[in-house]
Design goal:
two-stranded parallel ribbon, eight-stranded antiparallel sheet, alpha+beta, Growth Hormone, Chain: A
Length: 609
């Protein structure tokens, strides 16, 4: 087989590379970024459940506008611009200022941090969640206005605070900051059922470590408390994320950016099939460049973020991702402008062909399949980074109980390598092989294969104890995304009525990234929080995926028996009549009428890549 580069396909390859490369330093880390600025599981689940619905609406609407008015390139480029602007705006948001007020009681023979959040929350924390053998540690930012209290605290801390001056006045200890350590398992008494008492075993002030903090007279000061344990961090926080302006700006910016990115992907797919001129089996060879860009720049972006943040005690600065994304998307806009798109073919029937198509049982099942796969994909996109972050925090704490970092400092590197393996080991080979796989297995059997692979992938996640072992599982992404996406887009292109390609891509994209990802985000977040972790969530959905795999195979057998009169060309004989017109003539006339059977699976003598 000879390969020859088709110059007309170079711009679409370049677009896929630049667009996915540009967004890769931002999108994979959004759940972890949200967690860092103060979001909890429920708020993240709600935000990432809203986003797909916005994408589900934006895709078909933008596709219809492009098809109806012949504005494919304009709609395409505007969507690239909007996604870049509003994803950049996300990184300008500050942290959610949570109410984490607690009381530091300095006394003898030891001092106590007192946090009161009600009987139910306290008993749940004490009985089920404070089982770590490592000391709990919290950073306190306190406030003192009384000079006599300043003097007492200075003496207890052996004048280690800045603002403490031995035997001199006035003192200047208005905002002391310290980190306390408390080994709860060594202090088994909690006399107040409404409050958690953390006896202080040691403290850290700057670089100085003190074994105790004892006051001769009982002294209380109010502090804002940031604890490093996830369970304790959630307990200490007593306000709602939803009352913060940051939450609403984060949500609005994400809605606009995600909707624009969703339009970019569906329009990019439609333009790609336009350029392929019927050779839909070669779609994977074009789309693979997006996976290459995503994999390369996810690793590069993660490395830059970690390098830029190495002196921030585990807190990540995402500024390098912003600069990288901006430069790549500008290049993508220039490349997209150079695309030579063939004038569109319009449908003479308006939306009637599409409505009759969507009434076909096999098409309904196809859309349902896209939705179900979207649910499982959402768990990987939104909750796998969160799950790995929890595993990494636990492992980091086990490795160093006295660490004062906010979790594992290597988390971004792990997530970057995770994405790299998903792309280079999983997606890249499978996108290249997607045409051959679809020819060999057919679209229907490939759909069943995707559901089975997803079941195994999610079950493997549920048994993880070491987050680094997740790298071995990511090979399956080649089937669960690479093969799936090639199947979804090519099937949608084949069954689309003439002149409705962008609209059909928008519908199936809306089912996948709209309804499916939304349901997965919301349901995954609810299960994750209620059951206290990701292992149970991944196990439940893994078993559900295997059940869907079996059900899909049985339903296809049933449809074949119920509708034997339909031609069975890979399950695509839909029995729907289409009418196509040539929109480039002043007096359009039908140029095609009949069953849609333009399935070109024969091996060409020469492949244009």
């Amino acid at each position: 087989m000879k390969f020859k580069v088709n110059p007309r396909l170079v711009p679409i390859k370049t677009h896929f590379f630049l667009n996915f490369a540009g967004l890769s330093p931002i999108l994979p880390f959004l759940p972890v970024f949200a967690k860092q600025i103060g979001f909890d599981e429920v708020s993240v689940g709600i935000v990432f459940a809203i986003l797909p619905f916005s994408g589900m609406l934006a895709k078909p609407i933008a596709g219809w506008i492009a098809d109806r008015f012949g504005l494919e390139k304009i709609v395409f480029m505007v969507s690239i611009l909007l996604s870049g602007v509003f994803y950049s705006a996300l990184l300008l948001l500050g942290d959610i200022q949570a109410d984490t007020t607690s009381t530091l009681q300095c006394s003898s023979p030891f001092s106590i941090l007192k946090v009161c959040r009600g009987e139910e929350a306290t008993m749940n924390l004490v009985n089920h969640q404070l089982s770590n053998s490592c000391p709990e540690h919290c950073e306190l930012k306190c406030s003192i206005t009384d000079e006599s209290v300043m003097k007492t605290i200075c003496e207890a801390a052996q004048y280690s605070f800045k603002g403490c001056y031995n035997d001199t006045t006035p003192l200047d200890l208005t905002d002391p900051v310290l980190t306390i350590f408390s080994n709860v398992t060594h202090h088994d008494t909690q006399p107040d059922p409404k409050c958690l008492l953390l006896p202080i075993d040691s403290i850290v002030i700057g670089d100085l470590h003190l074994d105790s903090m004892i006051c001769s007279d009982k002294t209380e000061i109010t502090c804002l408390t940031t604890c490093y344990s996830e369970h304790l961090k959630r307990y200490v926080r007593q306000d709602s994320v939803f009352s913060s302006h940051t939450f609403w700006f984060f949500t609005i910016f994400n809605i606009i950016a995600y909707s624009a990115f969703s339009v970019t992907t569906s329009m990019g797919d439609a333009l790609c099939f336009n350029l392929l001129e019927g050779k839909h089996e070669e779609y994977g060879v074009q789309r693979v460049f997006g996976s290459i860009g995503w994999g390369l720049f996810t690793i590069l972006g993660g490395y830059l973020i970690d390098s830029y943040s190495q002196h921030l005690n585990g807190v990540k600065d995402y500024s390098p991702a912003l600069y990288l994304m901006s430069g790549l998307l500008v290049l993508d806009l220039i490349c997209s402008w150079k695309m030579q798109i063939k004038p569109p073919v319009k449908s003479i029937s308006g939306g009637s062909d599409m409505m009759r198509l969507l009434a076909s049982p096999r098409v309904v099942l196809f859309v349902i399949w896209c939705t179900v796969v979207g649910i499982f994909t959402s768990l990987v996109w939104q909750w796998l980074p969160w799950y790995l972050a929890d595993l990494a925090d636990t492992r980091s704490e086990e490795e160093s109980c006295l660490s004062t970092d906010h979790g594992a400092t290597w988390l971004t590197l792990l997530l970057s390598l995770n994405m790299g393996i998903q792309c280079f080991v999983g997606e890249v080979p499978m996108f290249f092989l997607s045409g051959w796989i679809l020819k060999t297995l057919g679209h229907i059997h490939t759909m069943t294969l995707v559901l089975g692979a997803f079941g195994l992938r999610l079950l493997f996640y549920s048994f993880l104890t070491n987050p680094w072992h997740s790298l071995l599982i990511e090979v399956l992404n080649g089937i669960t995304f690479g093969i799936f996406y090639a199947t979804m887009t090519s099937y949608a292109h084949i069954i689309a009525p003439p002149g409705m390609g962008s609209t059909m891509q928008g519908i199936v994209g809306g089912a996948f990234e709209g309804a499916g990802v939304a349901i997965g985000s919301l349901a995954g977040g609810a299960v994750y929080k209620m059951e206290g972790g990701g292992a149970f969530m991944f196990r439940c959905f893994g078993l559900f995926s295997l059940t869907c795999c079996l059900a899909h195979a049985l339903l296809q057998i049933l449809l074949r028996n119920l509708y034997p009169q339909l031609p069975d060309t890979d399950g695509l004989g839909l029995g729907v009549q289409f009418t196509e017109i040539n929109s480039r003539e002043d007096d359009p006339k039908p140029i095609f009428k009949g069953l849609r059977k333009d399935i070109l699976l024969e091996e060409p003598e020469q492949n244009l890549i």
